[in-house]
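Reopening: Aspartyl/asparaginy/proline hydroxylase domain-containing protein still failing for me.
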Amino acid sequence: FRHFVTLYISLWNLVGIQAFSQSENDVPVVDSSRQQVPLVVGGVEFSDDDIENMEKMSTLFGAVFYTHLLSPGDIGAREAWEGVSREIWALANYASEVPVLALSVAMCLYNYFWWGPHSLEPNTEAGRTAAELMYVAVRHAGCHDPALPPVDYFILQCNLRWRYTLMLAGEVGRHLAIHNRDILGSAIMFGRLSGFFHELGQLGHSGLIHGVSSHEVNFNADYYPASVKKQGPVWRNPLQDLPVASFLEAHYHIIRAELDAILAAGTTFETMNEQTRNAETQFGPRGDDWQTAYMFRKGQVIPEVCVHAPRTCELLRSRPEVANCTSGGSGAGFLRMAPGGRLKPHFGNAPRLSVHLGLIVPDGEIHMNVGSDSVRWQEGKVIVFDDTFIHQVVHNGVAPRYVMNMWMCHPCDPDDGKAFGEGVPDHCQGPEGMIPALGLHRLSRD
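Support: Ran it again with your exact input. Result attached.
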């Protein structure tokens, strides 16, 4: 834990900052004459490579956040987190003057400060600042330049920079308008969103399918644009277009019975969540809003969970979409959302597809927005959706909601997640995506 406390202390020694703020309203002063001096945070020196900086800063903040999440009673962990929570605003101010840090700080604001402290509501100032810094990162990398070669566009992760810029601006504007009734603030954010969207639309490799709405941004379009265009955010005919959908519905009663047995055993689900959870960002406003019990990851069975649901695991093992899918973002298992819970707007990892089988769906307002679509789960029914679109969840129901989740290899992938001799479906036929066309490897955002 000493390393995390070192991070907390060293943030007070940011090179070039004359005075540190205690809140976002008390802005520190930056000495521009010293900006070329290396910046050291938490014993880590940052460089002129903003993607490398993003990875370093995410590691530092993530370590403090995750330690605090897992040790809520640890005073040192709490103080370290409270410290970096205050000082992120000094970093944000510094990054606005030093663009090589803009990407890092924008992602930290989004990853760890999207939700207000002790609140179910987004921190709109954090979101707004993240949007503006992400746009600084767009221009810093030259992602706005139509002459930037396509291969450089993807190597510099311009697709990520632009899509997060649009998501952040759009979701902050939406919240200000609908929930805060802040007409002026939302108009400003929607104006920024309109400008960003227009600028992105001028690029030949924007990834926009129709070019009419910021809700259409997604990451699967970089791989399989024809399928994305035909299917959209939520698939209209999942039982017809995806064989595993009807398979899951046919075996609903088996899967549901094993979940019921797990829940009847008391704390078993919480134990499975602890055994399979990853180090994570601030996904929901409360640490236990979203819990997982993964049975498979990257095609590999997780015995500690499968021992509690052996028949479900055997069913999943029989499906090539699970057992033969080795993609880094793939997996399958139970998901639980607590009443009152939220999942912030986010993108899933591409290329993949998400399949949900509703298991326990209580009464109340429970829905998921995916791109421009909104859906509600039904017990025994499957929802197939492209989680590389912006999506978020609201649960104002009366009891926990449970689904069987499958993050499967995209059906248009000719190799991964396939049975021997299996081809790709008809909806995949069309232009090749930019990433495979350029011969690039998958761009992981894990």
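The first helix runs from residue 2 to 10. If you still see a failure, please send the error message rather than a screenshot.
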